[in-house]
Amino acid sequence: MRIPGVKPAIQALEAYLQYRIEKGIARASVPGQYRGLLPHQPLVYSSRGDGMSQNTKRRVLETGERRDYRACDSLQAHVTKLYKRAGIKGDSSHSGRRTFAGKVLVNTGDMETVAQLLGHTDIDCSQRYVDFDEGTLCDMFASAL
User: Fold this and answer.
1) Does pTM surpass 0.70?
2) Nearest C-alpha neighbor of 1 from the set 145, 133, 143
3) pLDDT per position as a tens digit, 118-139
4) How would DSSP label each residue in 26-71?
5) How far, in Å, CA of 115 to CA of 112, rounded?
6) How far apart are the C-alpha atoms of 12 and 131, rounded to whole Å?
7) Each residue of 100-121: pLDDT tens digit?
8) Closest alpha carbon to 134 in 126, 142, 122
9) What sign results for the dihedral spanned by CA atoms 117, 49, 95, 136?
């Protein structure tokens, strides 16, 4: 399955990582480790050279429980703009997470791994990210036989 814009998106990310290394932005002292970057630092920095700021958002869950979470609206808007420039229409930063979650589940068969990689503490939260098209479900069924 070919996903439009994936190669340009990967190339753009590679160029950005190289830019960070050249500019010394959160560069690790061990060049080969974590692709030369510090793992505990943000992936994307603002134009000021610091991590993107996050806003506190509030959501009411289906259970009626109120939950606060942190989000970076400016980063989300930037990722959406990058998707459009790469020719990926109708997608957002969250759709990329959904695609990633689905691919991890297909390759590992383990929702705990999906949850961990998405940064969730609750598997139920991660399950909402996993979508499969009918072709993928048919392929999974055929390979299970």
Assistant:
1) no
2) 133
3) 888 888 888 888 876 677 767 7
4) TB-SSTTGGGGB-TTS-SSB-TTSSBPP-EEEEEE-TTS-EEEEEE
5) 5
6) 26
7) 888 888 888 888 998 888 888 8
8) 142
9) negative
The torsion angle over the Cα atoms of residues 122, 124, 129 and 131, rounded to 10 degrees, is 150
**CA pair distance 89, 92, nearest whole angstrom:** 9
Question: For residue 94, what are the contacts with CB-CB under 8 A and spacing of at least 6?
Answer: 76
Are 123 and 110 contacting, i.e. CB atoms less than 8 angstroms apart?
A: no
Largest CA distance in the chain: 54
For 68-81, give the secondary structure using H, E and C: EEEECHHHHHHHHH
Contact assessment for residue 115 and residue 126, using Cβ atoms and an 8 Å cutoff: yes
CA dihedral 76, 82, 86, 91 (to 10 degrees): 20
Q: What is the pLDDT of residue 133?
A: 65
Closest CA to 103 of 77, 78, 139, 79: 139
